[in-house]
């Protein structure tokens, strides 16, 4: 039965066609999760061509403010220049390639390389060379040695994204149907959202697809993975409690789940946000968005490939708090990711409420948060159990296929849903994840027609 390919042979067309067939049946070959050759292909075809989150405009307030980030394996330096524009450079000295700035954030007029002392300003221009005239004579034209720009950088409602593909579709087009849902959480209040504190980050031994899936289309896990919240009386006993609401499959592999209150439970409108903020929501959201948002408890989803967002309600009546966390699942290999987690809250929220929300975020979804710890444990177990000989068997006639079939034939789209995308009248359905996998496959096979790239 075993057909363990020599991994150095790479991925061939036959394998990708087999994966496509299985995806159509709602089946997911387990070997894809941890295979180094699949990962190498993802690095090239997915992370080389999609928009990935870099940070939020509120992290860069004054000219000279900078943060250091990553686009997969490329270090990025984001700086606000004197004109108030945000520049994004490869954070690597143009002299000998040194990682130029290793601080997380700060404010600077110039960046000096620790290796030979070349210095660059906030426009990325080379402005200082140690003993320049003496060692290079007239041969060094500083203008030719500026920091390299990230090929594409665009923003949406304060979110800054980068793309390595200079010919990529615009960010606006890429976000597509997801914008309607992002607008609710990013645009509900006057002044939008702001980041508080720096991003927290930690490394987890798992695969980036699992974490994107978890936020993108898996409210089904909540009743079991987070069982302790039920036992403590924080969550309802109803095993369907995370199913109420809609799961929406969006274009370009994006996913969102809009949860509504469990039948029979009382919950104030607008995620329990302070009453004084409600007129802003009514002013800033469309009639359709307001209709959806009024009944919403949680908005959670993923922006393909590796950004997730979670806007929940925690606490008990009288002490409810809401926040937004943005998540990057930065791949560091097929079985390792670095998680970057930002806390955001409405600029216009009362100050005391912001502090309550921050504490709630840290206790639930910070690196040591109770809910985060539950998820992390499970994500690592999936990868641990997917690295062995049997799970990595590429013979798909053998039953090492995972089940993404929930609701496949039984749950029909809700035609009355007022937002974009294909909406299902429950969150216990695998429709959005199947959509995510379809887009993954579309990118992975984007040049399948070019025979020269494949050695069958
Ligand atoms: Fe979870």
UniProtKB/TrEMBL annotation:
<keyword id="KW-0223">Dioxygenase</keyword>
<dbReference type="InterPro" id="IPR043266">
    <property type="entry name" value="RHO_NdoB-like_C"/>
</dbReference>
<dbReference type="GO" id="GO:0051213">
    <property type="term" value="F:dioxygenase activity"/>
</dbReference>
<dbReference type="GO" id="GO:0016705">
    <property type="term" value="F:oxidoreductase activity, acting on paired donors, with incorporation or reduction of molecular oxygen"/>
</dbReference>
<keyword id="KW-0520">NAD</keyword>
<dbReference type="GO" id="GO:0051537">
    <property type="term" value="F:2 iron, 2 sulfur cluster binding"/>
</dbReference>
<dbReference type="InterPro" id="IPR015879">
    <property type="entry name" value="Ring_hydroxy_dOase_asu_C_dom"/>
</dbReference>
<dbReference type="GO" id="GO:0005506">
    <property type="term" value="F:iron ion binding"/>
</dbReference>
<dbReference type="InterPro" id="IPR036922">
    <property type="entry name" value="Rieske_2Fe-2S_sf"/>
</dbReference>
<dbReference type="InterPro" id="IPR001663">
    <property type="entry name" value="Rng_hydr_dOase-A"/>
</dbReference>
<dbReference type="Pfam" id="PF00355">
    <property type="entry name" value="Rieske"/>
</dbReference>
<dbReference type="GO" id="GO:0004497">
    <property type="term" value="F:monooxygenase activity"/>
</dbReference>
<keyword id="KW-0001">2Fe-2S</keyword>
<dbReference type="Pfam" id="PF00848">
    <property type="entry name" value="Ring_hydroxyl_A"/>
</dbReference>
<comment type="similarity">
    <text>Belongs to the bacterial ring-hydroxylating dioxygenase alpha subunit family.</text>
</comment>
<dbReference type="InterPro" id="IPR015881">
    <property type="entry name" value="ARHD_Rieske_2Fe_2S"/>
</dbReference>
<keyword id="KW-0058">Aromatic hydrocarbons catabolism</keyword>
<keyword id="KW-0479">Metal-binding</keyword>
<dbReference type="InterPro" id="IPR017941">
    <property type="entry name" value="Rieske_2Fe-2S"/>
</dbReference>
<keyword id="KW-0560">Oxidoreductase</keyword>
<protein>
    <submittedName>
        <fullName>Subunit alpha of 3-phenylpropionate/cinnamic acid dioxygenase</fullName>
    </submittedName>
</protein>
<keyword id="KW-0408">Iron</keyword>
<keyword id="KW-0411">Iron-sulfur</keyword>
């Amino acid at each position: 039965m075993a057909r363990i390919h020599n991994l150095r042979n790479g991925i061939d067309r036959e394998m990708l066609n087999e994966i496509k067939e299985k995806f159509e049946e709602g089946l997911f070959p387990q070997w894809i999760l941890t295979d180094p050759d699949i990962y190498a292909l993802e690095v090239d075809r997915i992370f080389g061509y999609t928009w990935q989150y870099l940070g939020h405009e509120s992290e860069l307030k004054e000219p000279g403010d900078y943060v250091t980030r990553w686009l997969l394996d490329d270090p990025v330096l984001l700086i606000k220049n004197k004109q108030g524009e945000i520049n994004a450079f490869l954070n690597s000295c143009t002299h000998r390639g040194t990682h130029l700035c290793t601080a997380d954030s700060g404010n600077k007029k110039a960046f000096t390389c620790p290796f030979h002392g070349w210095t660059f300003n906030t426009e990325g221009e080379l402005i200082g060379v140690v003993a320049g005239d003496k060692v290079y004579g007239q041969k060094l034209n500083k203008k030719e040695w500026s920091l390299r720009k990230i090929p594409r950088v665009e923003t949406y409602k304060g979110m800054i994204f980068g793309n390595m593909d200079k010919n990529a579709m615009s960010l606006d087009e890429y976000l597509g149907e997801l914008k309607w849902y992002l607008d609710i959480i990013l645009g509900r209040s006057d002044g939008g959202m702001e980041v508080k504190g720096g991003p927290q980050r930690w490394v987890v031994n798992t695969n980036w697809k699992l974490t994107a899936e978890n936020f993108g289309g898996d409210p089904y896990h909540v009743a079991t993975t987070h069982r302790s919240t039920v036992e403590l009386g924080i969550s309802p006993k109803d095993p369907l409690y995370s199913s109420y609401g809609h799961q929406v499959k969006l274009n370009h592999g994006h996913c969102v789940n809009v949860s509504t209150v469990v039948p029979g439970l009382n919950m104030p409108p607008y995620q329990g946000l302070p009453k004084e903020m409600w007129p802003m929501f009514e002013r800033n959201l469309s009639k359709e968005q307001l209709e959806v948002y009024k009944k919403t408890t949680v908005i959670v989803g993923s922006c393909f490939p590796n950004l997730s967002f979670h806007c929940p309600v925690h606490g008990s009546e009288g002490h409810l708090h809401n926040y937004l966390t943005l998540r990057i699942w930065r791949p560091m290999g097929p079985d390792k990711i670095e998680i970057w987690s930002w806390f955001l809250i409405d600029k216009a929220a009362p100050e005391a409420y912001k502090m309550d929300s921050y504490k709630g975020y840290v206790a639930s979804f910070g690196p040591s948060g109770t809910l985060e710890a539950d998820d992390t444990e499970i994500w690592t177990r999936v990868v641990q159990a997917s690295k062995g000989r049997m799970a990595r068997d590429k013979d798909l006639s053998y039953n090492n296929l995972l089940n993404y079939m929930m609701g496949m034939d039984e749950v029909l789209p809700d035609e009355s849903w007022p937002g974009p995308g294909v909406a299902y009248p429950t969150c216990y359905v695998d429709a959005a994840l199947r959509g995510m996998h379809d887009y993954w496959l579309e990118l992975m096979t984007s040049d399948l027609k070019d025979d020269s790239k494949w050695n069958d």
